[in-house]
Design a protein that fits this description.
14% of the residues lie in helices and 46% in strands. By secondary structure, the chain is mainly beta. The longest helix is centred in the first third of the chain and has 38 residues, at 27-64. A 16-stranded antiparallel β-barrel has the order 1-3-4-6-7-8-9-10-11-12-13-14-15-16-17-18. It contains 4 helices and 18 strands.
Amino acid sequence: MNTRWFYLPLAWALSGCPLTMAQDGQTPELDLLREEIRSMRVEYEARIAELETRLEAAEQAAAAKPSAQGAPATAAEPMSGYEEPAMMSPQTVSVARDSSFNPAIGVTFQGQAWAFDNDPGDYAIPGFPLGGEAGPAPEGLSLAETEISMSANVDDKFTAMLTAPIVVEEGEVKFELEEAWVETVGLPASLAVRMGRFYSAIGYQNSRHFHAWDFADQPLVYQAFLGNQYLDDGLQVRWLAPTDFYLEFSAELLRGDRYPAGGAANSGFGAQSLSAKTGGDIGFSNSWLLGLSWLGADADGRASGSEDDPLYFTGDSDLLIADFVWKWAPNGNSRQRNLILQAEFLWRNENGEYSLPDGATGPWDVDQRGWYAQAVYQPFPRWRFGARYDQLSSDEPGSWWLDTPLYPMDSDPRRYSLMVDWSNSEFSRLRLQYNYDSAGEDADNQFGLQYIFSIGAHGAHSF
C-alpha cells in the first residue's frame, strides 16, 4: 500500500473547514488555509516518495548481497527456545546491534554450588600440571562470573565488542577484562580481521563463553592442555571460501602471555595458530561441522601446578586439535526436540626444560593426548540431558621425573559426567551435574548446581 494515502483524509478534513468560513465571507483566510494544505500535501508526498525509494534500494541491496554459502544450519540452540541463525560462521561471534548510536549492553549472572569427596584445593592430575584457570570450582556456594558485555558498530567499516566479568576470588571482588576486540565489516573477498583480546579460534569448545557451555566445567583435556580456555591478545584473520559448501580458514598471531604459552616470548609474538573448518546440512534435520587446528606456543617461565610451589616450563608447545559436531532436530525445529553430538581429540608435544620447586631442572620432551565425547539430548522443550566422557594419556617422561608431579599414573586419567538442565527461556537456565573423576590419585564424586540468567542484549551464539 502507498503510504501517502494515509494523509488524504487529513487533508480532506482540513479542507472542509474553510468551506464554512467562506460562507462567512473570510476569503483571504480561506485562500491562506488552502495554500497551507497544498504545501503540506506536497511536502508529505515528497517525503514519502523519498522514503519509499530508499526502502526499495535497501531491499534490492539486501537481495543482491552474497551470503555464506554452505554454512551448516543450526540444529540446536545454546538455550532452549532460542533459534540461532542458520548461516552463522562457527568462528564469528554475533554482535547484537540494537542501536546505531548506543552500544547493546547485556549482563549474565552465574552462580554455583559444588560438593566434593576430596578437597578441591588439593586437586591435581599427575603428569599434567594444571595452569591458567584450570581446576575444579570452589567448594560450597559461590558466585561464578557476572559477565558484562557491550557491543556496537563503530562505523560502516568496523564493529567492536567488550566482555568484562566480575569475579570473586578469596573474598575479593575483581573486575577483569575478558574480551576487547574490534573487527572489520564488509572486507572484499570474504575476509575478516579481528584485533584486540579474544578467545582463539582453535578447536570447537575454546571460543565458547562460559554461559554457553553444555556442562558446568570444561573437559579434562581443555583444562590440562589449554588452562581451561586459551585467551590472548593478538590479531586474527579469517577467510570464508567461495564454495558451495561451508569452508573457512583462520590464522592468528598472538602475544603469548597465557597458558599454554607464557612470558610473552619472542618480544610479544609468542604464539601462532591455524584453523580450518568445514560443514554443511544433510536434509532438513541434520547438520555437521568438522575442524582441524594447530597452536604453536613459546613458553618462557610458564607456571603450572601448585600455586605455592609452582613448576616452571621454558620451551616450545605444539598442539593439534580435531573437532567434530553433529546436530539433529526434526525438520530443523530445535525448539521441540534436538540432539547434539560433540567430540574433540587433542595431541600435544612439549619440548624444553622444567624447573622444580627445589630448584632442580631437567629436560622435557613428551607427547601427550586427550579427548572427550559428549551427547546432549532435548526430548521436549525446556529440558536437556547430557553425558560426557573425558580421558588423558601421556608418554613416560623418563626416570628423572619419578616421584614428581610430572610423572603420570599407571592408569590413564578419566572422568564421567552426567547433567540435566531446565531453561524457562533463552535467558535462564538451571543445571544439575555429577562427575565421577578418577583423574587424580583418589577417585572423587562431584555434585554441582548452576544457574545462568541473562538480561539486556544477548547476541546469538555460533553453530
